[in-house]
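Posting for a labmate who doesn't have an account.
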Amino acid sequence: MKGFKQKVVDWLEKEKLDFEEAYIPRGYKRVGNLIVLRNSATIPNYVGEAVLSIFPWCKGVFQQDTTIGENRRPQLKHIAGDANTETIHKENGVLYALDVAKVTFSGGNSELRRRLVKIVKNGENLLDMFAAVGNLSLQPIVHRNIDFILYEKDPVTYSYLVKTLELNNLSTTSAFNEDCRNTELENWADRIFMGYHEVDESHLDTAFRALKSHGFIHLHPLGNIDRISEVVQTYTSMLGNSNKIQANWQKVKKYAPSIYHFEIVLEVHK
């Protein structure tokens, strides 16, 4: 089966166009009916035209250079097709309202999302402290019978979270546009998702207070695999109850050379 790059090369050769293979990415990210490409060099328009022809469902093609700021706002360049960056993405029976130029949504986390659906149990109370558009929590919310409370600090991302909840016929009354550390929840959550890569002690203090006497905290740091045990120890030390905490971790995906996105799950007994 041909890969993405070879398909683009074949199309360009068929069209008898001059091109440089170095400008063609090896893969692509699909978000709804849009395609986002990444490459160290500027991607020419003819690559975008090839993509539109190869994937008839694709309405617009963009190049992402990086993300900036605490909210990881994508920096995009329009390459071909429709320049509208809003779309509806569907995954595992769940709909997400997105603007790919304003909200980060990683297709590389799809396996993580499927696994979370299996882990979360019916009847649980789920607190998502960094909800985005439900990047981690929405699938368990849709596929399990649970109560949930969602916090998203960024007003732009929050607006798409509300649209996403409405698309999936879910109540928006448990979604809050404020810093998660402002929550007054105590002894409520069975499980807490913390999808932010740079969780600090104040975030963990809030999570510990919101957690029931026994529950789970899911953390998502970035780091080198050789130092993951130090990262786990840092989190357990922040909670101050290391003798009552069991920790498990696994790699989610490669993030950069020698750097991985990890999920650390802390089982806490107060």
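Reply:
Got it, the structure tokens are right above this. The longest strand covers residues 245-256.
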